[in-house]
């Protein structure tokens, strides 16, 4: 009898914590938690890799769709895998396009032969003699609706001449001179690359109007500038009646690659005659976002607008090489902080981390830092679904499973009045608010930091706390308003139901108690929503009220509060007991 009284008291306390929800979710697409899958034969390939990424928290992936692969196996060969990706809930999948079969390759180049053949024949069909156009037509018609973003090449601007970094004042640079065929890895000039963008846009959009065209993961803002300012005219990229679109008119997504451990957290100091280092996760995340801003500065100067951004490769190693940052803690914190800070920006759509698994086992002692960037340990020889997670997988899973589908709320974040030594913010789906906070790391080669915040500043007296590794531990703690922070993000949910009870309507709920399924009936209007909360105040189920009666199915035994909302306001609350 005592336990039942305790349950009723907790339920009563929940019902007393009903407050007006002030912010509504925006209509933008959810931020994408992405992953580069890699390849770990014989067992971890394609679908098992996607399933693992999804289980870790990925909502999107980046995979190859190379011409030489489909030329050999046929275009439909991976249709079952892409249909399975869709069924598991992966969206806006990015596919890397290019890389011709030998017979379709231009001489002395890595690009396609016959790019300047007509894109279409007289009857409107795609010209099979334009090999790139025909490839993109076959790819986009076969996978229409299954591929979200077509990335034209991977890192086409790999610099062979030392031009990419060079400022406009240097004798050879890409700011004032157009990249030539012998200066970057594609082996053809910048106009040919823009030609591929034009072909891809014309052909893909015909087959799949919602699909997006992205530049290949770029590393140099100067190359982006050259794309934006030129057309596909082989004669100096000039605008003419025939070549009437610049690169700026052909691109939907600015795709960037950046690994901040290389140069992002050190600056040369003449005073000390050497580098000053800031090798910590906050500096790493800031360096990545600063690099995005450099690209967007070019976008603004050339077009007056920012482009939607996808960071399709980034990470830091778990092992230190040379004087670069490298540790499990730095990697885990970098991933989580970058995801949070990027999701706070309107221009960044998704981030794909490189990579799902380590390229090699740590025991091999590889001297390549890219070998140790996996969220899980090397999967070669491992039978699915087995894997060994690194700390990064736990951090990635926690931020994804907490914030996926939510949108940054700048109003509530500003109301928090965060001091300079605390970062984070509020995210919402219009029903549940989530707060993410951490103490800013400022030291070199350390993730140690501490700070204190009092949620009483925004009238929250009780919260549910989840630490950075919650996706692995499942541990939650109910705390009061004062929280102690460290260098790893912590996640906080208000311990109660938000909304204001303004109306009362007649309703029924039976059976109650139930073994799992009850029927809720009430007077309802279009747009009403029914929600179920557990005793921590977390929403665990919701459904639109489309009929007068709605089945409520809860899998776990427990004690819940049902809430009927109308236009964000609570109009009914009811206790529900589930015994299984």
CATH class descriptor name of the largest domain: Alpha Beta
The largest pleated sheet is described as: 6 strands, antiparallel
Q: Please identify, by name, the CATH architecture of the largest domain.
A: Alpha-Beta Barrel
Number of helices: 12
Account of the protein in words:
The protein has 580 residues and is α/β, with parallel strands linked by helices. It has 3 domains: 2-18 and 501-578, Sandwich (Immunoglobulin-like), CATH 2.60.40.10; 32-405, TIM Barrel (Alpha-Beta Barrel), CATH 3.20.20.80; 408-494, Immunoglobulin-like, CATH 2.60.40. Helix content is 25%, strand content 22%. A 6-stranded antiparallel beta sheet has the order 11-12-13-18-15-16, with helices on both faces. Strands 1-10-9-6 form a 4-stranded parallel beta sheet, with helices on one face. Strand 9, helix 9 (328-343) and strand 10 (348-353) form a beta-alpha-beta unit. The longest helix has 23 residues, at 281-303. It is globular and about 75 Å long.
Tags for this model:
disordered N terminus, 4-stranded parallel β-sheet, 6-stranded antiparallel β-sheet, globular, alpha/beta, Immunoglobulin-like, 12 helices, 3 domains, 580 residues, 25 strands, 22% strand, TIM Barrel
């Amino acid at each position: 009898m005592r336990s039942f009284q305790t349950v009723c008291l907790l339920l009563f306390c929940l019902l007393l914590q009903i407050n007006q929800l002030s912010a509504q979710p925006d209509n933008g697409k959810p931020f994408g938690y992405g992953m580069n899958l890699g390849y770990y034969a014989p067992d971890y390939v394609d679908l098992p890799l996607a399933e693992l990424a999804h289980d870790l928290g990925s909502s999107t992936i980046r995979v190859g769709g190379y011409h030489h692969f489909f030329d050999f196996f046929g275009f439909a060969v991976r249709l079952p895998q892409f249909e399975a990706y869709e069924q598991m809930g992966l969206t806006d999948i990015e596919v890397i396009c290019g890389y011709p079969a030998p017979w379709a390759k231009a001489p002395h180049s890595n690009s396609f032969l016959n790019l300047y053949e007509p894109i279409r024949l007289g009857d409107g069909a795609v010209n099979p003699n334009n090999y790139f156009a025909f490839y993109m037509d076959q790819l986009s018609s076969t996978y229409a609706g299954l591929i979200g973003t077509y990335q034209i090449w991977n890192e086409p601007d790999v610099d062979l001449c030392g031009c990419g970094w060079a400022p406009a004042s240097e004798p050879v640079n890409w700011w004032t001179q157009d990249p030539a065929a012998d200066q970057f890895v594609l082996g053809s000039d910048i106009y040919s690359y823009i030609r591929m963008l034009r072909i891809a846009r014309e052909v893909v959009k015909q087959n799949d109007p919602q699909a997006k065209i992205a530049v290949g993961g770029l590393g140099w803002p100067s190359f982006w500038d050259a794309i934006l300012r030129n057309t596909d005219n082989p004669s100096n990229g000039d605008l003419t009646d025939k070549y009437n679109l610049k690169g700026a008119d052909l691109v939907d997504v600015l795709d960037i690659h950046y690994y901040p451990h290389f140069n992002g957290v050190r600056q040369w100091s003449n005073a000390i005659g050497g580098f000053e280092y800031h090798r910590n996760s906050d500096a790493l995340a800031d360096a990545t976002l600063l690099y995005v801003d450099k690209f967007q500065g070019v976008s603004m100067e050339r077009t007056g607008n920012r482009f939607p951004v996808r960071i399709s490769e980034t990470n830091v190693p778990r092992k230190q090489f040379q004087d670069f940052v490298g540790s499990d803690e730095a990697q885990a914190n970098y991933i989580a902080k970058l995801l949070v800070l990027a999701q706070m920006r309107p221009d960044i759509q998704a981030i794909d981390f490189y990579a799902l698994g380590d390229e090699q086992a740590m025991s091999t002692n590889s001297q390549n830092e890219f070998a140790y960037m996996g969220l899980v340990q090397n999967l070669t020889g491992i039978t699915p679904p087995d894997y060994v997670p690194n700390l990064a997988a736990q951090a990635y899973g926690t931020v994804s499973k907490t914030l996926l589908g939510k949108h940054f709320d700048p109003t509530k974040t500003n109301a928090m009045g965060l001091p300079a030594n605390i970062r984070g913010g509020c995210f919402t789906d219009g029903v549940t608010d989530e707060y993410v906070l951490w103490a800013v790391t400022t030291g070199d080669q350390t993730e140690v930091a501490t700070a204190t915040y009092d949620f009483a500043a925004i009238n929250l007296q009780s919260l549910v706390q989840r630490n950075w590794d919650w996706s692995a531990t499942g541990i939650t703690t109910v705390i009061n308003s004062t929280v102690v922070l460290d260098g790893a993000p912590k996640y906080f949910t208000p311990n109660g139901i938000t909304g204001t009870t303004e109306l009362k309507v007649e309703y029924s709920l039976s059976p109650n108690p139930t073994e799992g399924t009850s029927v809720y009936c009430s007077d309802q209007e279009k747009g009403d929503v029914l929600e179920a909360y557990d005793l921590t105040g977390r929403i665990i189920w919701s459904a639109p009220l489309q009929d007068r009666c709605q089945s409520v199915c809860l899998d776990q035994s427990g004690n819940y509060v049902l809430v009927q909302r109308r236009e964000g306001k609570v109009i009914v609350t009811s206790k529900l007991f589930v015994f299984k």
